[in-house]
Amino acid sequence: MNRGVVAYIVGRILIVTAALMIPSLLVALLYGEGWTGCYPFLVAILATALVGFMASYRKPKDMSYYMQEGFVIVALTWIALSFFGAIPFYISGWIPKLHDALFETASGFSTTG
Q1: Structural domain of residue 40, as residue ranges?
Q2: C-alpha span between 33 and 15 (Å, rounded)
């Protein structure tokens, strides 16, 4: 299995996800939520971007991947997006239990909730 490709692609997806979290931060600023409303989004954006940049720091020379890598990419991306998407819920205190925040985020990303 080409682990470099898996890390690179998952990292790039995390970077895009961090960028897509920015409008939530802007809305919190626009509505005057203050530090308590902006802090959870800021932490989530920075953590997601940091892990994304660390994972995709080196682009592999061999960018070929097959079905096995595809399955791992999807699974790791799903887990990572659920974790990083749960950060604002958990930090803000809206959903005080981490497993509930993870469930809410996973159901939101899958549009089943």
Answers
A1: 3-79
A2: 25
pLDDT tens sequence for the chain (113 residues): 889 999 999 999 999 999 999 999 999 999 988 888 899 999 999 999 999 999 999 998 988 888 999 999 999 999 999 999 999 999 999 999 999 999 999 999 888 86
Domain count, the chain: 1
Q: Whose CA is closest to 87, among 39, 32, 20?
A: 39
Q: Which two tokens stand for residue 99?
A: 């497993």
Q: Please enumerate in sequence order all residues whose Cβ is within 8 A of that of 24, keeping only pairs 6 or more positions apart, or say none.
A: 41, 88
- Does residue 108 fall inside a structural domain? no
Verdict on whether the full-model pTM lies above 0.70: yes
